[in-house]
Every structure is written in C-alpha cells, then in structure tokens.
Specification:
Elements (H helix, E strand, L loop, with lengths): L6 H7 L6 E2 L5 H13 L5 H19 L10 H8 L7 H7 L3 H10 L6 H12 L2 H12 L11 H16 L23 E6 L9 E5 L5 E3 L15 E3 L13 E5 L5 E7 L8 H6 L2 H9 L3 E2 L12
Parallel strand pairs: 2-7, 7-8
Antiparallel strand pairs: 1-4, 2-3, 3-4, 5-6, 6-7
Helix pairs in contact: 2-3, 3-6, 3-9, 5-8, 6-9, 8-9
Bound molecules: fe (iii) ion (2 copies).
One fe (iii) ion binds next to loops.
Length: 308
C-alpha cells in the first residue's frame, strides 16, 4: 500500500524549514536593478523606471536612515511574547514616525522634467503631516479611492522603507505566524506575492513576501492563502516566447472556491527574479485574470489603483 503525502507532510518529513526570512539589506537596490532590466520593451517602461528610481532612494533610506530605528519598545516585547506582529501597520501608521522617511525621500528625489511627476511631488511636499498621515492610512488599509493615484508610489516607497528599516532591527527569531496565512507575522500587512525557492535544502518551498516590510514567511504550497482550500487550484501564466511550456517564472495560483489569485515566482525558472518588480512588470496578467472573474487581494504599494 502506498501513502500519498500532502505537500505539508512532505515538508515536515524533511527538516523543519525556517519560518521566516528577513529581506536582504540590499533589497531595494536589487529591486531597482531588476526594474531597470524589466523596463526595456515593457509597455509600462516609464513607470517601471520611476519605481526603480524610488527604489534607489529607498535603498539610501536604509543605508543612511533619516532617523535611527527605535529601540525595542515595551510594546514590541509584549507583542513578541504573545505572538503578535511587533510592527503592526494599522497602529504604527497612525503614530506617524514613518513621516520622517517620506520627508527624506522627498528631499532626495529629483523629479525629471515631467509635469505630472512635478505636480505629484509638489503636492506631497506642501501637504501637512496630518494629510500625509491620512493618505498613508488609506493606502495601508486598502481605501485606495482616498489616495490620489499619482502620490501612491511616493507614499508606498516611504512606508516600505520605514518598515523594512524597523524590521531589520527587530529580533526576528521570535516571530510567530499571524491569524491568517496571507498576513505578515512582523507587521500584519497582506502578502504581495509568493516565491518558490530553488536552492539548497529548502528547494521548492513557498514563502510569501510582505507588501510592506518585505519579510518572507513560509506557507505550504498548493493551498489558497485566502480561504485555505486546496481543491481545484489552477495555475495561470501569460504566453511568453522566452520560456518553454510549464517553465514560466511567474504564475498565478487561482482558487475556484473564493475566486482570488496570488502571483507566484518560481526561482528555478529565473534565479534573478524578484517579487515586487516581477509583479509590476506583469500587469497584463492581472488584467487577464480580472476578465476571467478572479479578484486580486494582494496589494503592491507602488501601484495601488488610487483615486482622482
Ligand atoms: Fe510585513
Ligand atoms: Fe480561495
């Protein structure tokens, strides 16, 4: 008699994989380089180059932070003790310490001679801290119609830089899984995408990438991260002449139960791939899945739909 192991059991039978990976300290430089490459020949090339430039500034915010990362607070210690996200986005975004990163980003950004970009940056520079905070809250809570679309990448970049900076200064060994599979254990934000690893002992494991702080947490494969069902999942990718059938590095895991999908990167098919850049460069896939009736629940803070 043979026993068929479920994906989770196969993983448990090997060795216990690390639950969490922190982002590399050059995360934003990697994103920038990747975006510059993907921009060539992409219909959204100008947009990808703008995000690449913002990623370079994000990297400078990590390398030369405008403010020191706060010492571990009593609240963080309590959160870690109780298995709660120590960098909870919903409360920290309201406290506004991230605004120092937005200030620094606006100082360091040199807008090209482009009327739209100049207007967006001007509007952010002139906005009060109260207004900026309201936009930040709206962006992180998914109230996209309350944020002008042109401001989204700047706000998203500042928020990401602040949270990644803080994350890299939190003792991560103690982080526990959040209530929902799709929720970041460090900051409670939703996942942006999944990455299937390809090297070493943990080859083939799935990690989800946080849309805000970029930490990665392990979730078994072949399971909808939203409704936790495994039945009938399908994998969808756009035809691409560069890859043989079944070898596309980016595929969407589509769930017939809750009609949602999550984009996944298969590093075995492209070892250089990176989640945020791959996501932005494949908006055609989102449009296609939208037509098929699937909804996207994973935010990308550099391209929220936005209002106005
Ligand atoms: Fe996070
Ligand atoms: Fe589902």
């Amino acid at each position: 008699m043979s026993t068929i192991l479920e994906p989770g059991q196969i993983e448990a039978a090997a060795s216990t994989p690390p639950f969490l990976y922190l982002p590399p300290v050059n995360l934003f430089a990697l994103r920038a380089a990747r975006l510059d490459t993907l921009a060539v020949g992409n219909a959204l090339g100008d947009y990808l180059r703008l995000v690449a430039e913002l990623c370079r500034i994000q990297q400078s915010l990590l390398d030369q932070p405008p403010v020191a990362a706060p010492e571990q607070t009593q609240r963080q210690r309590l959160c870690l003790e109780h298995g709660l996200p120590p960098l909870a986005a919903d409360s920290l975004v309201r406290e506004g310490h991230w605004l120092a990163y937005l200030d620094a980003l606006l100082q360091r950004y040199v807008a090209p001679a482009n009327a739209e970009l100049l207007a967006a940056v001007g509007r952010l520079r002139e906005a009060s801290d109260e207004q900026r905070k309201l936009w930040g809250i709206a962006l992180l809570t998914g109230q996209f119609s309350a944020v002008p679309a042109a401001l989204v990448p700047f706000l998203g970049a500042a928020l990401q830089a602040a949270w990644s900076h803080w994350l890299l200064n939190v003792p991560s060994a103690d982080l526990k899984a959040a209530d929902s599979l799709c929720q970041c254990p460090a900051c409670g934000s939703p996942a942006m995408a999944g990455v299937i690893r390809h090297r070493g002992k943990y080859n083939g494991l799935r990690y989800l990438v946080c849309s805000l702080c970029a930490c990665e947490w392990h979730v078994v494969r072949v399971k909808c991260i939203y409704c936790e069902q495994s039945k009938g999942l399908t994998y969808f990718n756009l035809d691409d002449d560069r890859y043989a059938a079944g070898k596309a590095p980016l595929r969407a895991e589509c769930c017939p139960g809750c009609k949602s999908y999550l984009k996944q990167l298969y590093l075995e098919c492209d070892a250089e791939a990176e989640a945020l850049s791959a996501d932005l460069a494949s908006l055609a896939l989102d449009m296609r899945l939208d037509q098929e009736g699937f909804q996207r629940l994973a935010p990308n803070l550099m391209l929220a739909p936005g209002g106005e």
